Fold:
Amino acid sequence: MTPVELSRTVLRAVRCAVDDGELSVVVPGRALVTAPGPGGCGDYATNIALQLARPAGQPPQRVAEVLRPYLLGAVGVSDVVVTGPGFLNISLHGAEASVALVREILRSGLRYGYADRPTGQLVQLHAPHEVRAVIFMDVVARVLRSQGALVRTSCVARPLREWTEVLGAEVDAYGRPDAPAPLEVNVRPVPAGPADPVSLGRDAGRWALLHPAAHDRPRITAEYLSQREGNPLFRVRYAHARTRALSRNAADLGFDADPGDVRDVRELEIALADHPRILAAAAAQHAPDRLARHLLAVADAVTPLFPTVLPRGEEKPSVAHRARLALAEAAGTVLAGGLSLLGIDAPDHL
Structure:
């Protein structure tokens, strides 16, 4: 069961509880499913009980206890535990959850974590005439569109030519927009300062502007051009390139990927499963830095897997090798999709 499928399972549990008269609420359109927080347990957690407590007129823990048996009866769910003020912690059936997650990522490709359909929400983003604000707005628009929103962008004045030609900034209009939108957002991160990100080129320049949080001043230095472990952009792009190299090497050895049970990769599975939530949060908070930091977490989590993917010496390709290759390819897909949203290239060779 993938996070998207589990979210639907949670909503079905709410719907069943409403139909049975256990709860009197309007079934929400979406249930947030995340990795368990501090004090949590299992594979995933949801705050749906806290969300429904007020409209239901009941304490969150009571709502959680009402929903618990409905979730326990769902296919693929092995256990449900209520913790804290009313979080539902859900455990899935072992390897099945991991296999389903990898299949979902490989099936969705670069659109893994995207909304299923347009939301109809219209958002107007507006930026001052400053390079970081323009690049930030460009990526916020990309992430919002990935979550189904309709987005228009505008800048106080026409961006400098190098912002568009070198850094790849895209702006729909200049000056204040004529037609008001239901949601208007002024994008104003801390400016880049005197250093010029254009000198770093598109990929490093964008990363330098996007990786720090909006309230932090970015450091525009040549370190983002270095190909070493201390450079976070290099770690992300190198991890992606390694996944592609593994696929090429596996093809040379005559085997391909097939999702299966992989041991001791829980941190990586959690990071991959968390990708849809990160995209939704980055869109809601207009925070592309959350996506950049998440990609770094995925890159660091997949790196220990690399030495185990290909057979060694006279070893023949096995089911385990195919499963590890599939997991590596899923990680590479998430890295490529995330970098694309940041407007950064994800090369197959590095």
Observations:
- The longest strand covers residues 77-83.
- The chain has a mean pLDDT of 92.
- The beta strands are 33-34, 44-46, 77-83, 87-92, 122-127, 150-155, 173-174, 183-186.
